[in-house]
Amino acid sequence: MSLRHAILGLLAETPSSGYDLMKRFETSLAHVWPAKQSQVYGELAKLSEAGLIEVTGTGARNRREYGITDAGRAELKEWMTGPGADGAYRSAALLRVFFLWTLPREEGAAYLKEFARRNQERHAFLEAVRDGAQWRGDPVQVCEWLALEFGIRGSKSTGEWAEWAAEQLTEHM
Amino acid sequence: MSLRHAILGLLAETPSSGYDLMKRFETSLAHVWPAKQSQVYGELAKLSEAGLIEVTGTGARNRREYGITDAGRAELKEWMTGPGADGAYRSAALLRVFFLWTLPREEGAAYLKEFARRNQERHAFLEAVRDGAQWRGDPVQVCEWLALEFGIRGSKSTGEWAEWAAEQLTEHM
DNA sequence: TAACTCATGTAAAAAGTTACATGATTGG
DNA sequence: CCAATCATGTAACTTTTTACATGAGTTA
Question: How far apart are CA A28 and CA B108, in angstroms?
C-alpha cells in the first residue's frame, strides 16, 4: 500500500490537488514510485473517506486542494518507522538479460550496448537535474537530493555493468 | 506481460513443472521478476491454452512437465527482439528516503544505515553465490552470471550510497 | 506414522494500466 | 477564438498478492 503513503508524504510537505500530485508522480517520484492519474484520484477519494486527508481549499477549474490530517500524519509515521520495506525489484530489461542466450551473440551484445546507452543518457539527465536545481538546503530538499543521487549512482553503475556485460558476452559466448 | 515471457524463457532452457518454475522464481529470478505460486500455475494454464507450451510428460505426485512449443519460441523471440523494455522501477525503500525529513535526524540516519547494512548483507550473499557456483561456461550460465553480477554491483553501489546518505543527512539536516 | 517436501489448483482482493469522457480557464 | 493547460473523474481490464484447499510420496 505504498501509493497511499506516497500521497500522504507529499501532502505532509504541502497541501496539493490531485493534479499537483500527478505532476510530482511524473517527475520527482517517476523513478521511485510511479503512479497513473486514475490511481491518484482514486486513492485521494479513499484517503479522504478514511479521514487521513481532507479538502483544505478549492480553486478555479474545479480544483480541490487536500491537506493531511493528524490521523494521516500518524499513519505516515507508522509506515515510516514500521518494519523494513521489502526489496522487491522487477526489471523487464534485466529479465531479458537472463534469456540473452536465445539470441545470436551480436544481437545479445547489441542489446546490452543499447541498455548501456540508455543508462548513460539517464545518468546525464539526472546529473543535469541535480546541477540545474536550486538547492535551498531544507530537510525536504535534502531528502529529494539524496534520492536523486541514488538515481545518479545507480544509472552510472548500471551503465558500466552493461558495457562490461556486452564485452563478456562477446568473449564467453 | 513479462511473467509470460519469463516462463517461456525458463521452458526454452529446459522442460519443467510448475513446481520447478516456482523454485526458480524464488531463487535466481527473485530479484529480477518475482512471481507467486498462484501466478505461475495460472499463467501455465493460459500459455498451454494459447499453444505456446505443452505437456511433455508426467510424474509422481501429479507432476506435469511442460515444454515450449515452436509457437512459444516464436513469441519469446519476438519479445526478446521487440521494442526496448520500460525502465519502470518501484522501490518502497527509496520512497521512504523521500520522506525521511518527517523523522528526527538520528532516526533518519539510522534508517539509512540499516538500509546500507541490508545491502552489504545482500552483496556478500550474492558474491557467495557467484563464488560457490560451478560455472560451466555455456551460454545459459553466462547470462545467469551476467544478471548475478548486476545484482552484486547494484547492491554494492546501493550500500555505499546509503552509507554516504546517512552522513549527508547528519551533516545537512 | 508423523513430519516434510513435492505438487497443483482456486477464489477473492488489492494494485496498477489503459482508455474514455468532460469541462473550465488561460495565453497567444 | 483556438490551442494548450488545468482539472477531475469513471469503466474495463490486467497483474499481483493473499489465503485457502487438497493430496501424494519420502524420510526419519
Answer: 20
Give the pLDDT confidence score for residue B88 in this predicted structure.
Answer: 83
Angle between helices B2-13 and B37-49 (to 10 degrees): 80
Nearest partner of B153 among A88, A160, A95, A123, judged by Cα: A160
Cβ contacts of A94 within 8 Å, gap of 6 or more: B32, B33, B147, B150
Alpha helices in chain A (DSSP H): 2-13, 18-26, 37-49, 70-81, 92-98, 105-132, 139-172
pLDDT band at A173 (very low <50, low <70, confident <90, very high): confident
For residues B79 and B5, is the Cβ–Cβ distance under 8 A?
yes
Query: How many Cα atoms occupy the beta-carbon half-sphere of B9 within 13 Å?
Result: 29
Report the largest interatomic distance among the alpha carbons of chain B, rounded to a whole angstrom.
Answer: 63
**Upper half-sphere CA count for residue A43 (Cβ side, 13 Å):** 20
3-state SS class at B173 = coil
- Residue A157 is nearest to which of B12, B93, B153, comparing CB atoms? B153
Hey, CA dihedral for A78, A83, A84, A85, is it positive or negative? Answer: negative
- pTM comes to 0.95
Cell 499513519 belongs to residue = A75
Per the CB < 8 A criterion, the answer to whether B147 and A96 are in contact is no
Question: Considering only alpha carbons, which residue of chain A is nearest residue B99?
Answer: A9
Residues of A in contact with B29 (CB under 8 A): 95, 98
Closest residue to C14 (CA, C1′): A1
For A121, list phi and psi in degrees, rounded to 5.
Answer: -60, -50
Gyration radius (Cα) of chain B, Å? 20
